[in-house]
Amino acid sequence: AISASSKYLVCGANTGSLYIFDRETSEMLRLISNSELPDPVHLLSVNPSDEDILAIASTKNIIYLLKLNLSDRNTKEKILLKMTDHKAPVTSMLWSDEASGSIKIYSGDAQGQVWMTDAKKLVQKTVQLYACKSPVVQLDCKNEKQLLISSKNQVYLIDFEKQKATKVGSKPRNGDYGACFHPTVEDHLLAARPSKNLWEASSETSQVLATMKLKESLQILPNTTLLTRYSLPGAKIVKWPSIQLRKLERFGHVVVSWDNSCLIVIDPQNGGIVEWHTDVSLVHLVVSSDSIFILHTTPAEDTVVYRVDSLPAPQYAEQIYMRLLEDTRKHLKAGNPISDLALRSIWFQNSSLLVSSSCEDFEILNETGNILRLFEELSEEESNVLNAVSELLAQAEKQRNEIEELERAERERRELEEKKLLELQKQKEEEERAQREREEQIQKEKQEEEKRKAQELQARREEEERQRLERKAEEARRKEEERQRKLKEEEQRRMKAEQEELQRIEEAEKRRKALLLSGAAPEPVLQEKTEKAEGQAENLLETGLPPVDDVAEGDYEEAVVNITPVKKSGKRKKKAGGRKRKKNVSSRVVDIAPPKLPSQTSVKQKQEIASIEDQPVIAEPVISEEISVEPDFSAS
């Protein structure tokens, strides 16, 4: 048994082993020999929506759902479900066409039982859908809405939406006849009938709409070899009574019918057979979306898997040409004459196919014509083929020249466009460069302007700071001048006051001396001044500071007072209305040393003061009557 998907090809053996191949490289990906699958493999089916899940029907009527884990070589396969409800050999398995991820499969057996298995359900994973009166031959489904069951005697249509089952047609049949939905017409189905007939029925009403009789087209169309190196039409077979339409499989826009001896390709749209092959010796056939895989038994009883692709006629003829050319070159390279080449008829057949398919490849037609001219004694038919190839070659050469001219013109146009594009690009680059330079110049000027403004601002700030400092210095100078002026005025005033005081002191001293020497009584004013001077002298003794009214403290140093005590001979008598002065009282002689003048005192003033200090102390006079005179210290 075999099964195929878009990526993998799976082959099952009688030993229960599974061989998994990569479709593109034909490399074997994995050999599965699971101890839980000991029975020979009867049927295989890969889930099209999840190619990693494989359904296996064994010869013991058991269906396994196997997780292959092909993406991870280190992970072994795993059995997802084991279904044992079939009591007869499983004859057909079909995966549901639901969206990706579905694990739902339909299966039919030789007793006519049809089951549905859903591995994703938690309970009741398997349910019986229908029971036919004869063995199930084939199953087909459409959009998860309808299920088509083809048994040996009848075709049944199960509608899941309407939840009912109906027979297709009224006439029974007896044989392994299949059925499928129409590949191109919506709501139609096809059912194989005896005598190479094909029913077309409605999938809505289950009524037969038409019967296609394919017997005549089968006799007209020549048989084609399929599994040889050169699959070309062979001789016509007038009678082939054993050929019948059996199972039906959709393949693109056509339908493939097959049994163990024949493969027939049917076009249901046109109601005829496209081609048929009797060299297949089919064991099993699988149809995928783009290829047909045939499990074939050779005459030596070897089992081989063939892949059949559907190609358009020109592409098909080109494939045959490549094989012919390879074999012919090998033959000529070995030194064998062209007359011994057994491929002469195949060359002319393929040349006819190239002509009928209107091949436009100059190289293929030219090489084909050269090979055909090597053959001698051409028949009329072969000459006609050669002439047709020559005519087609001339057309191809003309077309090639036209194409070359167009290509040359296009190449020149592209070169011109590329040149213009380069010029535009160069111009654009030049403009961009100029723009960059302008921007750089503008930026540079802007920076210079900012720098100039910053310098001007700095200079202005420095000038303002200089002016501020000058104003401050000027203000300080002005204040200093004002202070000096005030000090000078104060000094002049003080000097004047000192001079006046010195004059008063000198005058007072002169008067005192004169009074002392004359022995006359002091005048009232002199007496008052004398009393005031005595009070100031007492104050001076107590505080040690001279009572100067208009001189600030600290301008003069302390004065030296020399008081010579005189013994009193008696008490003073008070006068009426004032002080009474006693006669013959002892008098005091007070010498006041003038205070030292500050440093600002002029030299003349210092000399005058020094002259006063150098005067001798007045000796105690001898007076008949003692008079106590109080000096006036108010000015000092």
UniProtKB/TrEMBL annotation:
PANTHER family: RUBY-EYE2-LIKE PROTEIN, TECTONIN BETA-PROPELLER REPEAT-CONTAINING PROTEIN 2
Residues annotated as domain HPS5-like beta-propeller: 2-297
UniProt-listed InterPro entries: Beta-prop_HPS5-like (IPR056499), WD40/YVTN_repeat-like_dom_sf (IPR015943), WD40_repeat_dom_sf (IPR036322)
The protein's name: HPS5-like beta-propeller domain-containing protein
UniProt biased composition (Basic and acidic residues): 526-535
Stretches the record annotates as Disordered: 426-503, 515-550, 567-609
Organism: Vannella robusta
Compositional bias per record (Basic residues), positions renumbered to this chain: 568-585
Superkingdom of the organism of origin: Eukaryota
